[in-house]
Amino acid sequence: MSQSSPTGSFDVASLVEDVNLRRVGQYALVVFFLGFFLVPLETGIMTAIKTNESVARSLPFAPPVGEGFTLGNIQFALEQLSGSFFNSLIMSIPATIGSVLFGSMAAYGLTMVNWRAQMGVLMLFVVGVFVPYQAVLVPLARFWNNIFPLARMIEPMVASIPFFQGYHADLVPLVITHIAYGIPICTILFRSYYQSLPNSLVEAGKIDGASITKIYRRIILPISKPMFGVVFIYQFTQIYNEFLFAFTLVTGSDAPAAPVTLVLPAIGASTSGIDFGIRMSAAFLAAVPTLILYVAFAEQFAKGLRTEA
Amino acid sequence: MATHDNTEHVSDAPDEAVGWESKLQYFLNSDFVRSAPYWGIPFVLMSIAVYGGIGYNFAISFTDYEGLGTPDYSALDLEMYAQALSSDAFIAAAQNNLVLLVGFTTICLVLGLFLAILLDHGIRFSEKFQTVYLLPMSLSFVVTAQLWLWMFNVESGILNLVVTTLGFNPVDWLGNPSIALGAVIFALIWQFSGYTMVVYLAGLQSIPDDQFEAARVDGASITRTYLRIIVPQLKEASVSAAVVLMVFALKAFTFLYALVGRYRPPNGTDILATLMVRRAFKFGEWAYSAAIATMLLVMALGVIGPYLYYQYKQGSL
Hints:
Chain A is mostly helical. Chain A has helices at 4-18, 21-48, 52-57, 72-111, 118-130, 134-147, 150-159, 171-196, 199-207, 212-223, 225-241, 244-249, 260-263, 276-296, 298-308; strands at 269-270, 273-274. Chains A and B meet through helix 2, helix 4, helix 5, helix 6 and helix 8 of A and helix 3, helix 5, helix 6, helix 7 and helix 9 of B.
């Protein structure tokens, strides 16, 4: 404690000393960019809680005053989106768990055990991270619609599960697709972590005669908990936010199994134009799950992005 | 190795059954086989999806398949590729794609580097600012497209508010074909520059502080220090960030679709990805869009290939 007060006063002194033009300019820029990144969001939220009249009359970023305030738009958007929220979550959660688990297993197999041709297999995983999904859309649509119509086959089974409807079967191919295409990035993220672990951990396990499975379950899984957090948050955000696969497999925004991202571009649109109060409410609601995750785990999210590069 | 030699020897001996069994036993106990379920299952699943998909797409692109019945593989030719390369829509989309690729990637890198340096240098609460700068990256393209649709609104969007306050006429950002692509690039930079910043910050933090000190002792200005000493060391961070951004620029479909909620993006912003999806799902020209997709893939591989080779040479894979 005796250390803290001199440090405190030193800080204040250096702050006063540092108030020169360069410092002021630097902070002004920092604040400017704060505005740059926040204004579209702030404007969206303010527009979401204004009446139509207020949207038309007031400045877009100004908060609503008096009569201009309403929660009607958000309520309306919530009603429109509630079904698709459920679809999004029951699609994203199993897809995330699946791809994260497979990614961890693959990364373990590739890093912890030495065998030839490892580099070639790894390359195939890395390329899989970057492949534009457009290159597989036509095959995907044909596979799940014509060759192996899984959704139609399991529809009666899904309908018999409580809380589920037959149309939720449409989400099963989507979950499998997300798992398969999520494996490469999860593998690469886990691999960078497993490589940073000391080799002695596994060696010790091997000397003790532990099997590969035992090393994975007893040694690797417990110490990679933090990395599981990072990859899980990263992957959930990706899958929840994803649009193209859902667009290909579930098609229209009016399909009952459509996830949030598919419904959003159609909400509040009519022949007379877009009702921005409703559209912004819906956009804000759609972003809430990822925003909560981001605010709570910003550091993990940043780490996921850093490792990807 | 000793065991291995032994089994080889035994298998030559007359008692062949034992040799074969022990050989198998040895093989089954090897690390390769015992680790196979770990990497093998995910690898097979991923390979079917990614490489099986690419191969199938490649095959369809040589047919004339238009969505009825099954593709006819008896008459394979390059007709779809020729048709694409001679179509104006394809050329225009490829040009837009190039502008997006170069403009978006360059500005994102420069702005991201600028933000990283800005926050790296003795800013209080720089972590909090970092979190805000990166925030757009956590949002779906569908959501950010809605936010920017409102920003770009002709009557009451913020951008026109600024423009008219400065005394100019309001601009139809997304309606004017010569401006629309620039507007889209601007919005995408808003979303991605936080990402490049994070990549650069990680690079900056790995550079030891004493290099700053040494430069300061030598009397170099801060700008000079950064330009001459620090930035050249960020080559690796720049390359990886550029690859991620370029690959994104090639496949940026979601943002453009979500801006208007239909297959045709604003005039002047059609890129190969939007053209491909429109041809496939709106017009059912599966073979034609498969050909476009293959060319898109080749472009992406043109970006990734050299990068992976560079990484491999560096030994950082």
